[in-house]
Amino acid sequence: MSDPRFADLPTPCLLLDEAKMKRNIDRLAKHADALGVALRPHLKTTKSVEAARYVLKDGNGPATVSTLAEAEVFAAAGITDIVYAVGIGLNKLDRVLDLHRAGCRLTVLLDSVVQARAVAKASKDAGIAIPAMIEIDSDGHRSGLSPSDPDLIEVGRILHQDGAELAGVLCHAGESYSAVGKEAQSEYSEAERLAVVSAAEALREAGLPCPVVSVGSTPTAHAAKDLTGVTEMRAGVYVFFDLVMAGIDACRIDDIALSVLTTVIGHQPKHGWVMIDAGWMAMSRDRGTANQAVDQGYGLVCDEDGNVLPDQIVAQANQEHGIIALRHGSDGTMPDLPIGTRLRILPNHACATAAQHQRYHVIPETPGAPLMTWERFGGW
Amino acid sequence: MSDPRFADLPTPCLLLDEAKMKRNIDRLAKHADALGVALRPHLKTTKSVEAARYVLKDGNGPATVSTLAEAEVFAAAGITDIVYAVGIGLNKLDRVLDLHRAGCRLTVLLDSVVQARAVAKASKDAGIAIPAMIEIDSDGHRSGLSPSDPDLIEVGRILHQDGAELAGVLCHAGESYSAVGKEAQSEYSEAERLAVVSAAEALREAGLPCPVVSVGSTPTAHAAKDLTGVTEMRAGVYVFFDLVMAGIDACRIDDIALSVLTTVIGHQPKHGWVMIDAGWMAMSRDRGTANQAVDQGYGLVCDEDGNVLPDQIVAQANQEHGIIALRHGSDGTMPDLPIGTRLRILPNHACATAAQHQRYHVIPETPGAPLMTWERFGGW
User: Fold this and answer.
1) ipTM over 0.95
2) Is the pTM here over 0.90, yes or no?
3) Which of A22, A19, A47 is nearest to A353 (CA)?
4) Which residue from A277, A285, A320 is facing B286, i.e. has the nearest CB?
């Protein structure tokens, strides 16, 4: 099969399957509803205003971002309730205030007295109470205070009393990305919940407010069974899914909505290699499946229609060359892929692969409808 | 020391040291002169018109590129002698012809009868003889015909007789990136030379022209001792250099002209971690030093002025979080790096790290002079 809509696309380029994306979005929205929590999708994966409209509940929020550039683009598009879920840099407070002045309620994240003092002072000086959440650590993955850390109350007090707004507590179980299967992931979810609920209780016992209690990662959001005490959950990569998520059973291969369209440019028969025009610049250098049970190389190969070619992976990548080979240990055979054949490559990590591209070519849910083009952005 | 010129830069961002870049450029230009070959720098590393002016001999060429997007941008900037050094996709010939019509002599690369026929036919149909080089393989790294492959003569004959222009032969010893030290690299250089010279002789013996005999990679270009029979050499990453190149002794750490400016955003004292706002989105996912003698994590940490902080590496990276820790096995101690401290991170792979950014902030050779901003581009 050859899709005539792809004939004019330059390769490599990014394809997005609208139907799969909608299915992924619906699934988590329903799960959040069933658990009785709000969903605050993370827009760092898509970085596209068009995609954000699908992801956000009423098309305008609430949302999570990973950079101020994202906050600025999405605020300009009318999204006014945004959590910037990376510890706030002291050099970024002027831009935070500018976003507030432009009508966006941007909530910052922090885990130290130094940051709390700076946010409180900037708030006081500007006459704008910057909402701030305290980051809580449940798994030793990166940032955040332990719920029992004495700094928690001090940070909360500074925010609440010195000019800022203590908006709540937030936790991200990044270690859940290495937990295989729903049972293991639900343990991380419960650890997330216990950490933030315990921190929220400690703040409230100290007479401080803690309206928002936020948890989330794609694996824990889907695996959560009970979120008592939690008010919202966050997830990002679930919109597209990817091979890393499939490798821990957070999705099926068939759920992956993002792929890279590529063209065969050569062969090295002596090695059993097929050369394509998607190298690491198109796929990213992410090798997130390298330590999983099934190593997908730089991506799993599908035909132009998205059907997986068994055991064919992008085994090696140079900047603009991908090398397709049989997975190590496979007893399959290489199919005949003549020069000029178009293929799709499923990515290890959707956030990383999408970031290498400037736009999505969207395959509409309606069969045969013309492709749509959605611009994406990067930067900080 | 705190450089006031950095105070207004958003972090993370890309810094480029003009003096080091010029030194790197001069060194290879002199070596090419001494060897009696032309230098055709690869612009895939810089992807910046301003940087290209420094790299190219007269500011306008000759040049090598890795994408048609690069060819189009550089052609529009007046660079008219470009080799597109990735096997030509049959879907890209219209854009190749458009570049010729716009006055750019774009040479394509191929290694098969199928491609040669398509290039010859496109040439004939358009009345434009597309120059094409035949890719030769010297080390089993990726594409290219072995010099003794019978297809070599057939490909050459098709190009020469059927409407295209047989421009020569080209080889890239990609395996040289794993060869440590000048002696080992010079063996790859000699293998490159032998492969292309032998292919050129075979073509000439068959009565075909072979005006250009091209070799190159950053390690082999610097290590080459004798290039008899070769007419030009190519290299790309030497303009900036990086930790991978330093790890194989192709440069010193002090030669690395590119770094990522970042800000400390937190600490995890129980782990000995310093959190920075440069994660893998700013550094890229490239872990090219992982298999070298010294694993530099996601980058080597320097103070704001570029002085290496011994044994401090970006040990882990999330999308927008970098985690600085002591190198495994180090008996050093973590310095005091308060929140707000600016640092520079040297990258594993300059091509990959630069590709994550939209511009260079250039530190001029003249001490204290204002920073320059050079835009860079991506895409295909």
Assistant:
1) yes
2) yes
3) A47
4) A285
